[in-house]
Amino acid sequence: MTQLHKTWLLLLAFPLSVAAQDFNGTSKIPFDSNVKTGKLPNGLTYFIRKNAKPENKVDLRLVVNAGSILEEDDQQGLAHFMEHMNFNGTKRFPKNKLVDYLQSIGVKFGQHLNAYTSFDETAYFLPIPSDDPDKLEKGFQIIEDWAFNANLTPDEIDKERGVVLEEYRLGLGAGKRMLGRYMPKMLYQSHYADRLPIGKKDILENFKYDKLVSFYKDWYRPDLISVIVVGDIDVAEMEKKIKAHFSAYENPKNEKPRKTFDVPNHKETFVAIESDKEASNSNVQLMYKDYGLPKVMVTVDDYKKSLMEGLFTSMLNNRFAELTNSPTPPFTYGYSYHGRTYARTKEAFQSVAMPQEDKQLSALKVLVTENARAKKFGFTQGELDRAKSQFLSEYETSYNDRDKTESQNFVGEYQSYFLQSRPVPGIEWEYKAAQKMIPEITLNDVTSFLKEYIKEDNRVVIITGPEKDGLKKVTEQEVLEAIKINDSDITPYQDTEMATGLLRKDVKPGSIVKKESDAKIGSTTLYLSNGAKVTYKKTDFKNDEILMEAVSWGGTNQYSNEEAKKTNFANGALPEAGFSGLKLNDINKFMTGKIASVYPYISDVTEGMSGSATPKDLEYMFQTMYAYFTDLNMDQEAFEGYKQKQSAFYKNLSSQPGVFFQKELYSYLLKDNPRFNGIFPDDESWKTTDYELAYNKAKERFANAGDFEFYFVGNVDEKVIEALSAKYLASLPATDRKDKVVDLGYRMPKGDLKKVVNKGTDPKSNVTIMYYGDATYSAKEALALEALGEVLTIKLIEQLRENESGVYGISAYGNMSKVPYGSYFFTIGFPCGPENTDKLVTSALNELQKIIDKGPEAKDVEKYKEAELLDYKKNIKENSYWMENFTAAYTNSVSPAEILTKEARIKAVTAKDIQDVAKKYLSKDKVIGILMPEKI
Asked: Among 208, 424, 521, 765, which residue has the least CB neighbours within 10 Å?
């Protein structure tokens, strides 16, 4: 179901007779007429839609209604293994020709080209250019080969075992260990509990080739396959291609039935309490499983019931959000929902929370109590009105942007329709349906769900968390006691009075003193009476989106070393206190149904705000900015609540080996920096954190709006943006002070360094290779260093993954920065087996050395260019890309019009440019960090 929306006026455009006819309760939900769908005689289903966003591009998807649930005992993991094999070679694209070809037309492996395997399905993603008939034809050849013409030779299968085993290794850890122990209770007596898609290690290592071949032949067959085509295409032509490529294939003569597997019901309440020394946080999950199969939406009444359920869930979760924003939050987050479990055939009402490590029982009690409160007393009219307003606003936004929807969003909808029969009426129908149905929904309609969902059988409680000395593990009896509720102790929810506005101070408008236009990029700059600047660019990329950024030089580099350490972890708490005397819950309640948000921040060299809004709610975004500048609350209780939530999240984070590795590596590299206070807070850093100091320093940072530049990109109305800028931004306090970038002079150590960190019991390692240092910033070199990262990634995948089967994923990345000082940074990173670290480090450095010595291969440079140009052509029509350009231009003190030269600059990158930056910056002084398991 698409996102939700609002606007009562459009009801006037729909005659009542039409609405009554279209939304009769027993009428079937229609199928979107914008979609061409059909079924070939062999049973293959297809969906085709013309959609011009992004332009000249098409999303192809092959969906197979088969996953790990269909594996035999000796095939566990082979559904996923088959997914891997389809990228390794097919009839028309043997060995590694597939990835090589797609890279040559700008499709990045793992980023654009991808796939996944789950319990019930396998899906392959192939976005390609649609403006070239040859590329389109090859795209169809690829998905046809994936479906029916994979090369499953013994040599290629054996070669891929190493890659799949590396992916298996990646999943090892506390989460998987605990999952393996509680899954049999969660999915009691279900086949799903025995069919995790990654499979079993011994089978992956030793399965006979025919087992994979038989899985492919049994389940990759026309009647279980869907081909989805959405993009800038001719629908009739695509239908012809589907018929030409897929009609000739037949289903097996003795085809296996595509069984469904139930999750049996049970009278008991199962309790799973699992802990692990590497668990990074505590989680509580309460499940009430439905008795029957998931209900499919077929009629208009079904759709209306789904709206009721959505409103019910929204109201319940708003209560949980209020609790998390209280001075004594019971958990970092908590929510309830009704939806799928791991199994396609079983849904459940589920409540989830992440509490502090010693507050699992009390968090569970809160979840149970709030569910019981809603079950007994229902909701208030105010809660329902706000939820309706929010839903209608979201529906309105989706409707307003219906012609700006990305193709990939449609693809996902049609996949759900094929696999799970989820209706696809289209946003036009859904919007009209919501406009009619939501106002009709009453409190009685939304109070019945919990009476249906909550029961004393078919219930599972799962508690997971860290295991360490001094931390008492809860018992099953304690859990069972916690979920018992004394009905007489429950009181109704008290809905507080809603605020009447966001500001409590009068605003004395300023003025616009000068206005300039930049015809090249279509932007306008306003110079305000207080010295601030506003630059806006009107676009038609989204009808209902305006993005905002405000930025000023300064940041925490203006603080003393001691001030920086004391405020480091308190700065994030500042917005939690609210503004204008309103608490966060007051603000959230007032803003329900209004789509506008602002987030203030303080970085090392800048302070600023980020935000977004619909054109209709733009003034609320301006009011929020004004309040953050002039009337930020100071609330010690809010800080304490923030600290509790952060502690629950961070307290045991370093028990994860990967996180511990990063913590130790950067602690080693930043040990001589007196401002370094850890990469995340611990008990000691909280003791020295000074919230009042952070508040006062933030007030200083935002005391001078005249030093700020404000940027707006989106569907901007010129008269509106100018009026709001004069009223809310030109009126902000200002001084003559102009902060500059401060380079404090602290640097990470130089030289060839190596840091080995031992953590974890699983046989898994992680490698980080870094090059960094001071450099005179050059836009040309910066682009060449980025290109080097992309080109080297191509070679690393070829060598370390495809040739050596030593890694699942590997990447390289490079960039240059201008502030606070000119610098370069380049990194190579990959996970692997501990026994292979030295060999793979050598291989990675050898691939880099080849580029240093001989330069990159011409074909790899062209692959980089094709991919970057494709991304650029897509990005140049997105508001976020233009906003990033404005802020980057501010940071680098260049013209925003340089965005228009990006295509030419990409095309101008040469192999020599890439070789030169590799030779100049990556020939010496590197850091190698290696995570190894603990020695046992």
From this structure: 208
